[in-house]
Amino acid sequence: MQDFGSTINAPVFAISRLRMRTDGKGITTLVAFMGCPLNCKYCLNPQCHEPIYEADGTTPRKNIMLLTPQKLHELVKVDNLYFQTTGGGICFGGGEPTMYADFITEFRKICGRKWKITLETSLHCSDKVIKQLSEVVDHWIVDIKTMEPHAYARYTGKTSSVQKHLTSLQMNVPPEKVTIKVPLIPGFTDRSDLGHDIKEIVRRFNFIDIVKTRYRTENR
Ligand code: SF4
Asked: Which residue puts its alpha carbon closest to atom 7 of ligand 1?
C-alpha cells in the first residue's frame, strides 16, 4: 500500500462496526473523535469532553486511541467488502469531526473513492473547513440544535452561527448530500419551534432531507 507518511494524529474514543440504517445507506463503521467546541446540556457522548491524556500529557487515557489515518484504515478495512457491496463506508462523528478536517482529508486519500464518507456534525466550524471537507465527504448529517439564537446559546453554551454555517454548506455542497436533523430539545425548544425551523431551512437554504428528532434528557 502507498505510504502517506502521515504525522497527523487524532484521538478516537470509539470504533463501532457493522452499523445499518443509522448513518444513511449501506453498512458503516462509526469513528468517534474526542473533543467538541459545544457543551450541549444533553450531550449524547459526554466522554468526548474528558481529558485526552494522562497527567504526563503524552499518554492517551484508557479507551482513547491516538491514530494516524493510515492506522485507522488498517483497523477498519476488515469491512471493505461490506462497504463496497452495500454502498457504505465510514461515518465520522464524536465529538465534533470537523475538528479533524486534515485527518479526514488524508484518510480519503488512503481509502479511495469506493467507500462512502459521512459526517455527523453540529457544523460548528469555519467556512474554510466546510469547503475543505466538501471535497472529500459524500454525505453530511447536520444536527443544527435550533435556529433560535437565544435557545441555541442556552443549550450549547456558545453563540449561534447556524445561519452562517448553513449558508456556507449550501454554497459548497449540493442538497442531496445533506441531511438536516432538527431536534425537539426538552426545556429549550417545542413543536412550534421545530415547525418554524424546518420552514426556514427549506425556504432559505433549499435543503430537502430534514429529519425531526427528540433528545433524551438523562445524559446529564
Ligand atoms: S455537539 Fe454533540 S458532542 Fe458536541 S456537545 Fe453537543 S451533543 Fe455533545
From this structure: 43
Nearest atom in ligand 1 to the alpha carbon of residue 95 is 3
Alpha-carbon distance of 72 to 12, in angstroms, equals 9
In the chain the domains, ranked by start, together with CATH numbers, are 10-214 (3.20.20.70)
Atom 6 in ligand 1: residue holding the nearest Cα: 40
What is the whole-number distance in angstroms between the Cα of residue 88 and the centre of ligand 1? 24
Q: What pTM, to 2 d.p., does this model score?
A: 0.94
Distance 103 CA to ligand 1 centre (A): 20
Q: What is the pLDDT along the chain (220 residues), one digit of tens a residue?
A: 344 445 689 999 999 999 998 887 899 999 999 999 999 999 989 999 999 999 999 999 999 999 999 999 999 999 999 999 999 999 999 999 999 999 999 999 999 999 999 999 999 999 999 999 999 999 999 999 999 999 999 999 999 999 999 999 999 999 999 999 999 999 999 999 999 999 999 999 999 999 999 998 765 5
- Which residues surround ligand 1 with Cβ inside 6 Å? 36, 38-40, 43-45, 48, 94-96, 122
My answer on whether omega of the bond before 57 falls inside 30° of 0, hence cis, is no
Q: Distance between CA 77 and CA 209 in Å, rounded?
A: 30
